[in-house]
């Protein structure tokens, strides 16, 4: 069934809004992947707040105008499955990477983050980005490390004094 002009405008507006709010984009070719696998991919994407969309490339090019994903326009050939990460920049990359391991016909074509296009071979780089919680935990550990070390140092001084006094006491008792 052919899409009317109003339907196309609605699709472009929807994809544009998603692209404006997304942190990263991963584009894949899902030709040959069976329906059951695609259903499990969609479920996994929903759980990780990744928005999956299948859109014609011409409509996607229009939707990406004025967004940081305009850089992928030249790479849009053939059927495309768009995965927009909405909260965690590496979420779509992790999902697509794991899915590609299980499905030989699933191929990542291109990815983009921060207005830069990355090749599909750099999928691991994006997939290894820490989640927000992991980054905050690392930051907290880094911030608390000097305070912890200072507390240990202050605690060590009275402990050393106590050990020296005990050693002197033991030495005097042995001499007596």
UniProtKB/TrEMBL annotation:
<comment type="function">
    <text>Forms part of the ribosomal stalk, playing a central role in the interaction of the ribosome with GTP-bound translation factors.</text>
</comment>
<dbReference type="InterPro" id="IPR022973">
    <property type="entry name" value="Ribosomal_uL10_bac"/>
</dbReference>
<keyword id="KW-0694">RNA-binding</keyword>
<dbReference type="InterPro" id="IPR001790">
    <property type="entry name" value="Ribosomal_uL10"/>
</dbReference>
<comment type="similarity">
    <text>Belongs to the universal ribosomal protein uL10 family.</text>
</comment>
<keyword id="KW-0687">Ribonucleoprotein</keyword>
<keyword id="KW-0689">Ribosomal protein</keyword>
<dbReference type="GO" id="GO:0005840">
    <property type="term" value="C:ribosome"/>
</dbReference>
<dbReference type="InterPro" id="IPR002363">
    <property type="entry name" value="Ribosomal_uL10_CS_bac"/>
</dbReference>
<keyword id="KW-0699">rRNA-binding</keyword>
<protein>
    <recommendedName>
        <fullName>Large ribosomal subunit protein uL10</fullName>
    </recommendedName>
</protein>
<dbReference type="InterPro" id="IPR043141">
    <property type="entry name" value="Ribosomal_uL10-like_sf"/>
</dbReference>
<dbReference type="Pfam" id="PF00466">
    <property type="entry name" value="Ribosomal_L10"/>
</dbReference>
<comment type="subunit">
    <text>Part of the ribosomal stalk of the 50S ribosomal subunit. The N-terminus interacts with L11 and the large rRNA to form the base of the stalk. The C-terminus forms an elongated spine to which L12 dimers bind in a sequential fashion forming a multimeric L10(L12)X complex.</text>
</comment>
<dbReference type="InterPro" id="IPR047865">
    <property type="entry name" value="Ribosomal_uL10_bac_type"/>
</dbReference>
């Amino acid at each position: 069934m052919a899409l009317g002009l109003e339907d196309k405008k609605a699709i472009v507006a929807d994809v544009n809004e998603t692209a404006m709010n997304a942190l990263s984009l991963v584009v894949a070719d899902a030709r040959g992947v069976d329906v059951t696998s695609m259903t499990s991919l969609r479920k996994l994407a929903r759980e990780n707040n990744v928005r999956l969309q299948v859109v014609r490339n011409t409509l996607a090019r229009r939707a990406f105008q004025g967004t940081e994903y305009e850089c992928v326009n030249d790479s849009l050939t053939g059927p495309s499955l768009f995965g927009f990460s909405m909260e965690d920049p590496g979420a779509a990359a992790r999902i697509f990477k794991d899915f590609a391991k299980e499905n030989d016909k699933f191929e990542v074509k291109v990815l983009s983050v921060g207005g830069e296009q990355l090749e599909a071979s750099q999928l691991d780089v994006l997939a290894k980005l820490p989640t927000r919680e992991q980054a905050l935990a690392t930051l907290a550990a880094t911030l608390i490390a000097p305070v912890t070390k200072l507390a240990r140092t202050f605690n060590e001084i009275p402990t050393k004094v106590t050990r020296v006094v005990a050693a002197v006491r033991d030495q005097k008792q042995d001499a007596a």
